[in-house]
Amino acid sequence: MKEEDYIKGRGAQQNVPNRFLKHIYETRDDFLEFCRIEGEEADKNKTQYIPIFPKTIVNKVTSPDVGMLYSMNPYQGCEHGCIYCYARNSHEFWGYGAGLDFERKILIKEDAPKLLEAKLKHKNWKAETIVMSGNTDCYQPAEKKFKITRGCLEVFLKYRHPVGMITKNALILRDLDILSELAKDHLVAINVSITSLSEETRRILEPRTATIKRRLDTIKTLSENNIPVNAMLAPIIPGINSHEIMNLAKAVADHGALSFAFTVVRLNGAIGQIFTDWIKKALPDRAEKVLHQIQECHSGTLNDSRFGIRSRGEGKIATQIHDLVRLARRTYFKDKPPFPKLNKELHERYKKGQMKLF
Length: 358
Prior knowledge:
Layout lengths: L28 H10 L9 E4 L6 E3 L9 E3 L2 E2 L23 H5 E4 L3 H10 L8 E3 L9 H5 L1 H11 L4 E5 L8 H9 L3 E6 L5 H7 L6 H13 L4 E8 L8 H10 L4 E6 L6 H12 L4 H10 L19 H17 L26
Parallel strand pairs: 1-5, 3-6, 6-7, 7-8, 8-9, 9-10
Antiparallel strand pairs: 2-3, 4-5
Helix pairs in contact: 3-5, 5-6, 9-12
Pfam families: Radical_SAM (PF04055)
Keywords: Iron, Iron-sulfur, Metal-binding
Protein name: PA0069 family radical SAM protein
């Protein structure tokens, strides 16, 4: 592969057709040749921010494999570009592709704080932890401009409602003031995702994410401010980061994480094609070995849709991963305090924006 054929700064190296659309967009060779002759760019590789206006923002989660009851996503699509991201397939429901479209066409829900406030004020709503974001990162680069996540945190604080967060971006420290206030009443827990200790691996696997050092420093800063942190060592990809489990666990423990979770990679839907194309370009010498090891974890395929098994994997390689995880927990987390449960008792008193007297 020629170096110029690799799209730097992006995870996906292609746009795959949307399986729900009758017609597909195809870049023809004669158009590419025309652009070459004219000295024009066929693809400017720019990120687009597209406003959308949903009627609701809080989603009920029905999957038994996900440890949350409710989630909300201020953004659809994610500029971080993690090649393995399970959320890529969701972009097809919006009429876009799971490949480059997912990273370059970011849907913006500017009304999210207003919709969230309406949900929390509803007379039938009973406090349950709402997780930002169960799908795409609420602190992806768009947040620096739009500040929708910060607006939502202000709503959670106003109504003293529990919130969980999942991110791999150090931008979360911008909101340390609100997070610290939430933490005083045990209303917030953070999940920081860190997949590798190798910067070279991070750059190709998660091209527009915060560096490893910044993520570890984020865990440390949050922990020092009494904000509970769980590290997400996910996904574990055989042949890419599976050998790092012990070192990853030690690093996050040393920086203050109270616990860690993991999943074994699965390449569902369009992600199988996207990942396969990517690894043959990014890591051609390891491509077949990695793909075969992923297949070994999922009964010979790149994906397994069975609840209870799909995120854990099975077979010899998956067993080795689980053994390492158990060893890492015994070695580095045995003296850690239990991860705290969030407070669901305060919200009812603040439901109308102020405390009830009786």
